[in-house]
Amino acid sequence: MSTVSQPDGRPEEPPDTAGGTVTTRPHSNASSATSTETSTGPAAEPAEARHRLTALQGLAALSLDAMASVAYGPESIVLVLAAAGGYGLGFALPVTLAIAALLTVLVASYRQVIAAFPDGGGSYAVAKAHLGRRTALVAAASLLLDYVLNVAVSVTAGVAALTSAFPGLYGDRVALCLAVLVLITGINLRGIVDTAKAFLVPTAVFIGSVLAVVVVGLLRDAPASTVTADGHASVLAHHATSVGALLLLKAFASGCSALTGVEAVANAVPSFRAPAVRRAQRTEVALGALLGVMLIGLSVLIGRFHLQPVAGVTVLAQLADASLGHNGAFYVVQFATMALLALAANTSFGGLPVLMGLLARDNYLPHVFGLKADRQVHRHGVLALAAVAAALLVFSGGDINTLVPLFAIGVFVGFTLCQIGMVRHWRRERSPGRRGKVLLNGFGAVLTGVSALVVTATKFTEGAWLIVIALPLMVLGFEAVHRAYDRIGERLGLGRVPEAPRRAPSLVVVPVSHLSRLTREALNAAVSLGDEVVAVTVTYDDPADRPATEALRRDWELWNPGVELLELPSTTRSVGRPIAGYVTDLTARRPGTRITVLIPEAEPAHLWQRLLQNQRGAVVAHAVRRDTDAAICRLRFRLEAGGAR
Question: What is its main location (predicted)?
Fold first, then answer.
């Protein structure tokens, strides 16, 4: 079966189709119109090295999601255990240790994924190689959902940290969320390296702040301050004396939101500088170590200070208050948390566009997502992610509790498929030490599979059912796109040697409405392109239009360019339909002739001046493309800033 791909595996830009025919749009200034975007390739050019990540920059650009989860991971555990009262809170540390153990397995496993699949793609690449096409699409869909939800959750959590310090801003949380999203999107459009540089300082401040809270808190015997919790209602249940297995599983499932983002480094290995594998592995290990220390440290402090969750104040804010006191240091922690939570969305902006590029290369997403602009930016993927995340933020009203139940399910599905795929990878590889690697990935598959079931079951009625429905729908969407590309490839004859080109008689149709330098340039181009040229103008049987029609007819005869001017009468104010009708009739009368419609358009010197144009050329081009098989050539005539000379 033919596929829409070039011999080197890169996606070929899908054609514009109208009625099953190919429409071309040559430009007179083709060199200036050439896009700066290039298709994704397997290897980076040496000149592009400056737009790729070091290990430290990778930590700042791709690990923010996992790092920032320490702000809501422990809180998610505490809120669930609070249902069992103060006795239940005593299990916060054991639950956290279980999550940290799972984190260790995941980090070790993803180091192996990075080495085995250096072209990136994470669980999608692993599943595609070892578990089949359909399973790979499930992994891809789960990652796409997780990345989109990560943006919404991270931005919402960041704004929640701000409103915890300044309650007066609570009513404006949706506007604040959208403003943060716009800022992050703008930074990411400048390239992943510039993004990493911009986020290095906030990342360092946050890590330093949380570690300071942990270290200082461990040195205290009692809380330094409880100002943030004073006056807020406790959500702790009373008269509870036991903790059931179901409650512990639910707490574990909620805390697993802290593990999202662990896979981002493996998804974006091509974004690192050479040696990319080694740098990515270092980043993965550093991420796991820092995340584990912060999670366990905060959990120890929760038990040490006998912290009780209260409404309207985050657990991290209470811990900062208890460790550092209600002073400037407290506000530094809050601002650092707000900044990193908001910027944690950048993990998705670093990983999702790369994944979408791989899906586009395999014909499961539109090929536009496989293109890169300057600075190695998957611009279309970045903008698509921002648009969907903005819709989620508006839908949720900026409330993190609406989004968190949907979070982490998709990523655990991806975790599990990745581990199973790696087991099959090592069994086929037969490399030294493969038995230990198989055991590691197999153990990880069991843990993440059980976690996925627990998370889905415990959060099903809270919104997880949406993810259960969305995953198969996305897979069906991927397959629909793939079938469409297969059909296009079959009709284009991709993969087959075409017949030799042959010359056919050519006729160029030039729509005109008046005489000007633009008209002259259009006819110059037309007589150069075709064997025969005819100019057409649409006329209206209206007293107000007759003088202009007669003036054009008279001026054309005086000018006498050697090209016939054909008048196309119209009873309506439509411009495109009469020209398209004429081209259709011409095609029927001259079946062996190659017909081109050359549309002259003035291009103003300043961008704002385009608002002054009547868009006549676009209207004609749309009508001709929709109703005919003719080729379309849109001639751009640039107007100089100083005026015509």
Answer: membrane
State the Cα–Cα distance between residues 598 and 524, nearest whole angstrom.
11
Encode pLDDT of 357-394 as tens digits. 888 888 898 888 877 655 555 677 778 888 888 887 88
Alpha-carbon span 289 to 4, nearest angstrom: 43
Given a cut of 50, is residue 39 above it in pLDDT? Answer: no
Asked if residue 32 belongs to a domain, the reply is: no
What SS3 state is found at 602? strand
pLDDT at 373: 56
Cα(364)–Cα(369) distance, integer angstroms: 10
The mean predicted confidence, pLDDT, of the chain is 77
473 with 536, same domain? no
Residue 373 is classified by DSSP as: B
Backbone φ and ψ of 284, nearest 5°: -65, -45
Look at residue 14 and tell me if it is in a domain. no
Assess if residue 313 is contained within a domain: yes
- Rounded alpha-carbon distances, angstroms, from residue 8 to 40, 126, 495: 11, 21, 12
- Token reading at 400: 């993190």
Q: Which of these three, 432, 452, 486, is where a domain ends? A: 486
- Give the distance from CA 548 to its chain's centroid: 51
What is the torsion angle, in degrees rounded to the nearest 10, for the CA atoms of residue 105, residue 288, residue 135 and residue 386? 160
- Cα separation, 70 vs 65, in Å, equals 9
Q: List the structure tokens of 467.
A: 């993810």
**482 and 510: one domain?**
no
Of 263, 294, 295, 297, nearest to 280 by C-alpha is 263
Write phi, then psi, for 467 (nearest 5 degrees). -70, -40
Question: Both tokens of residue 208?
Answer: 């330093």
Query: Could you say which of 452, 486, 520 is where a domain stops?
Result: 486
CB-neighbour burial class of residue 629 (10 A; exposed 0-12, middle 13-18, buried 19+): middle
Q: Is 504 exposed, middle or buried (0-12, 13-18, 19+ CB in 10 A)?
A: exposed
Q: Report how far apart, in Å, the C-alpha atoms of 45 and of each of 273, 507, 558 are.
A: 11, 44, 58
Count of Cβ atoms closer than 10 Å to residue 34 Cβ: 9
- Give the number of domains in the chain: 2
Within a domain: residue 18?
no
Is 569 found in the same domain as 429? no
Pairing relationship of beta strands 21-22 and 38-39 according to DSSP bridges: unpaired
- Phi, psi of 601, rounded to the nearest 5 degrees: -140, 135
Nearest to 410 by CA among 181, 246, 257: 257
Residue 415 shares a structural domain with residue 511 = no
Q: What share of the chain is helix, strand, coil (3-state, %, to 5)?
A: 65, 10, 25
Q: E strand or H helix at 115, and its extent?
A: helix 92-116
Q: Which helix (H) or strand (E) holds 447?
A: helix 434-459
We report the CATH number of the domain holding residue 572 as 3.40.50.620
The band of 235, judged by pLDDT with boundaries at 50, 70 and 90, is low
Output DSSP code: residue 504. -
| Domain of 328, in residue numbers | 51-486
For strand 38-39 and strand 371-372, is the pairing parallel, antiparallel, or unpaired? antiparallel
CA dihedral 233, 238, 241, 244 (to 10 degrees): -60
CATH, residue 57: 1.20.1740.10
The type of residue at 557 is E
Q: Taking Cα atoms as reference points, which of 513, 48, 572 lies closest to residue 270?
A: 48
The arithmetic mean of pLDDT across residues 599-619, rounded, is 79
